[in-house]
Amino acid sequence: xxxxxxxxxxxxxxxxVDTAAEDVQIPGKNGYLGILPGHAPLITELAVGExxxxxxxxxxxxxxxxxxxxxxxxxxxxxxxxxESPDEIDVERARKAKQRAEQRLTSGDTNVDVExxxxxxxxxxTRLDVAEKKS
Amino acid sequence: MANILDIRRRIRSVxxxxxxxxxxxxxxxxxxxxxxxxxxxxRPYAQMLTSVLKSLVARTEIYDPETGEPKxxxxxxRPEKTVLLIVVTGDKGLAGAxxxxxxxxxxxxxxxxxxxxxxIEAIGRKGRDxxxxxxxAAPVQTRSLGEAEESGEGEPERKERAGTIQIxxxxxxxxxxxxxxQARALADSVIKRYEREEIDSVYVVFNEFKSVIAxxxxxxxxLPIAEIGEQTLRLVEELPEExxxxxxxxxxSAGVGLREPRGDAAEAFGTAQVxxxxxxxxxxxxxxxxxxxxxxxxxxxxxxxxxxxxAARMTAMDSATNNATDMIDSLTxxxxxxxxxxxxxxIIEIVSGAAAM
Lengths: 135, 357
What we know:
The complex is a heterodimer. Chain A folds into two domains: 5-84, F0F1 ATP synthase delta/epsilon subunit, N-terminal (ATP Synthase, domain 1, Sandwich), CATH 2.60.15.10; 87-132, Up-down Bundle (Single alpha-helices involved in coiled-coils or other helix-helix interfaces). Helices cover 26% and strands 45% of the residues of chain A. Chain A has helices at residues 91-106, 114-132, and strands spanning 5-10, 15-21, 23-28, 31-35, 42-46, 49-55, 58-72, 75-84. Chain A is elongated, with a radius of gyration of 16 Å. The model of chain A has no long low-confidence stretch (mean pLDDT 82). Chain B is an alpha/beta fold. Chain B has a single domain, classed as ATP synthase, F1 complex, gamma subunit (Pyruvate Kinase, Chain: A, domain 1), CATH 3.40.1380. Strand 5 of chain A pairs parallel with strand 7 (277-278) of chain B, so a sheet runs across the interface.
């Protein structure tokens, strides 16, 4: 059994990652999945969260939001709507987005789309988390 | 006879204009190259999404076995009473007939759908200006995609109409730096309206762009989804032969590749001949994927339109540069003639003056 697999992370804007990885952890909708080479074929929807993988002995971290992943024994493909490395994350923007969403929730306005506000908060928090873990 | 000084001034002015058009052409060529790269970068995602959807179609019952009705609202075909048309033009001018061609195609499409209620979402300033002169704005407007931050409000309900044909949204200034989230926001709005049965079908009219020599105006059906992975085209217009020739010449002189840039080989995603473990029930996956499919379709249309706009501007600027060169040549000729005539006249004056003495 080979000890690496091909990992691809793709967004509509670009191919973010295309590398051989030793393992990957992805935020499945029903919880995090840890994947090692030789995993059984699997398809899952992604939630908002972190993708963590080891390539060449180094750990990498990405904040992803909504998407899909396909796992094959020798290949993992992640389709995400956004995938950002810690350096790319605009901390200020994430913080503001979080604030805005919280304001919407507490505003008492019945027009507010609660689900969307919660999603926004979750997304902003994940981005902040990932940005912090950079060091 | 024109004054030599006047002609010289004209020439200088035309030279300046030529410099500007030349610079604009180079800029457009560079932007075109970038836009093409972006379309290419979007392709793997679209391909993978399509192939996973296709494989899910095979594995789930998307049609009710008894009634034959599709289970997903985005697949539902209804009689067309209200049509949504997304018109994608450019924000800026100086691109030849680029935006005019699209608005013309849109007008033809509207004729085709005469008698039905039509909602229009205008993307790009040029098309917006044209449409706004002709059709009233709807009482309820879609939030403009140009506003950077998402608001928390859900999609507004639209009950009253301003007329049979109305403009429900205007999106200006998003084409300069388009992000996927903007395409998704538009898709979300469209999907909500479709599910609420405010609209019965959705079309996009835009300039499709595979490469400089392979582009055409199309009206593509986005909803209901007829067949996944297939384009459903309702109206196709090839660009006129002459225009294509000019575009080709412009591309060659600007050093832009003519062929469609090749990406990686089509990747098979979710299509391997194995039994997958589905973390979620396939039907649920399918439901979650379809809206994304709509979003990527719209995103692709926007990206291609951006590339086409730059290509059109490049072509227009190339012709302008050529015309300026021709003009300089003919003006130079006129100037030389005028100068020669002046000298001749002076000689005659001197000679006849001498003869008179």
